């Protein structure tokens, strides 16, 4: 009989794990809280680590790539003046731009109807045994059922229910960066900028970044620093952002973006939390993706880490087919160095997105200028 895994969450981490487990002879079942598969989402930059993992999962070729052909980034000042700054596509290990929904669409394609997915279903009780875990689910009709699995994988995001049920409350694992984010697609181009233009309106403790995408609306990302992000995450985003960004709206970019926020349901407003755990598994329950190690948007590696995690788990289970505990040890040993490396610099990288003081704001501007000039110099030298 094949071994059965329950995967909680139909995101990048959950689908990657499902593809890899199926490939190695397991029978995965996915449960997803939402009534149907989500689409769209925000801008994601996928670097070599993510591209390699997507290729290993067999989905890179079917993934839409949305890096604009003529991309330029601008630093926009309070008074509306602007300066060119270096753009992401010129970096070493440059990311390809896409939407979260593009990665999920490609992974969904990779599931190829081979895996059972139950929508509108959440876990309510997990009894974690030595050789199996017994899970009680509840669906949208309120019906409860209990099933037994060889492995339960919590890939249910930064506010994971599996983590709460088995490992402990959020506060035991959350490491706040002290920032809030609000990401959504703009309904229209930014006035005065071309398609393919990205921009940053930055001030101390608050920024609006616009990420351009080919054939899709740009993503607006508002970020700001606050003393109590968990409290802030319960507020209404629109009045909150209007108040915080009011005096940065010299040329109307902010207020037009916030009008677009008012007209969409496809937005994410939340505090930015890194998740740190001493172990990602306990008995027959494993966490993977943001639920286990949320690297936050500042790392630019969360989506990649989810795909790598799925692939590594599949390989570890294949290497130890009769010893799940040993496979989970192998998974920890292979994933820890990568996660540790990227978690180490998150607080520092957050300064590039939301500078916490004048010195950081100034340092960030100087850095972008140095990068731009060094790239211009290198491209002149190579022609
Ligand atoms: C604004 C922003 C920009 C980003 N930019 C980048 C980037 O440039 N590069 C990069 O690599 N990463 C980036 N990331 C990070 C990346 O998006 C995430 O790391 C990745 O999507 C996490 O995938 P996941 O599957 O672990 O979790 P999620 O995407 O959170 O998926 C979890 C799934 O579980 C479901 N679920 C939740 N609770 C339950 C439950 N109780 N029962 C059943 N289902 C449940 C949810 O509905 C969802 O479908 C960014 C993130 C943000 C917010």
From TrEMBL:
This is Oxidoreductase. Residues 5-341 form the FAD-binding domain. It comes from Gluconacetobacter liquefaciens. Gene3D superfamilies: D-Amino Acid Oxidase, subunit A, domain 2, FAD/NAD(P)-binding domain. InterPro entries: FAD-bd, FAD/NAD-bd_sf, FAD_aromatic-hydroxylase. GO terms for molecular function: FAD binding. It comes from the Bacteria. The lineage of its organism: Bacteria, Pseudomonadati, Pseudomonadota, Alphaproteobacteria, Acetobacterales. PANTHER family: OXIDOREDUCTASE-RELATED, POSSIBLE OXIDOREDUCTASE.
């Amino acid at each position: 009989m094949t071994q059965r895994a329950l995967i909680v969450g139909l995101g990048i981490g959950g689908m990657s794990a499902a593809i890899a487990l199926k490939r190695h002879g397991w029978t995965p079942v996915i449960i997803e809280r939402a009534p149907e598969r989500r689409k769209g989402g925000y801008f994601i930059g996928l670097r070599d680590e993510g591209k390699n993992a997507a290729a290993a999962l067999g989905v890179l070729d079917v993934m839409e790539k949305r890096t604009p052909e003529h991309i330029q980034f601008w630093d926009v000042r309070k008074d509306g003046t602007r300066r060119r700054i270096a753009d992401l596509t010129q970096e070493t290990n440059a990311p390809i731009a896409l939407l979260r929904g593009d990665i999920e669409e490609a992974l969904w394609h990779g599931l190829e109807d081979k895996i059972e997915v139950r929508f509108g279903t959440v876990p309510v009780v997990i009894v974690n045994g030595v050789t199996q875990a017994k899970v009680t689910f509840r669906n949208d009709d309120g019906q409860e059922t209990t099933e037994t699995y060889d492995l339960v994988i919590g890939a249910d995001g930064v506010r994971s229910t599996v983590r709460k049920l088995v490992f402990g409350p959020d506060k035991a694992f959350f490491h706040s960066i002290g920032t809030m984010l609000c990401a959504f697609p703009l309904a229209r181009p930014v006035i005065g900028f071309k398609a393919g233009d990205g921009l940053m309106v930055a001030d101390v403790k608050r920024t609006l970044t616009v990420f351009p995408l080919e054939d899709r609306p740009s993503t607006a990302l508002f970020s700001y620093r606050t003393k109590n992000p968990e409290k802030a995450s319960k507020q209404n985003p629109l009045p909150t952002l209007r108040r915080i960004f009011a005096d940065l709206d010299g040329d109307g970019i902010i207020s037009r973006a916030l009008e677009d926020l008012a007209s969409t349901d496809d937005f994410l407003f939340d505090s930015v939390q890194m998740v740190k755990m001493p172990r990602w598994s306990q008995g027959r329950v494993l966490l993977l993706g943001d639920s286990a190690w949320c690297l936050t948007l500042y790392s630019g590696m969360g989506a990649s880490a989810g795909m790598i995690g799925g692939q590594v788990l599949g390989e570890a289970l294949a290497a130890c087919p009769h010893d799940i505990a040993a496979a989970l040890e192998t998974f920890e040993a292979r994933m820890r160095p990568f996660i540790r490396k990227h978690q180490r610099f998150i607080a520092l990288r957050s300064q590039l997105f939301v500078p916490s003081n004048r010195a950081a704001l100034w340092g960030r501007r100087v850095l972008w200028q140095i990068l731009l000039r060094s790239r211009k110099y290198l491209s002149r030298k190579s022609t």
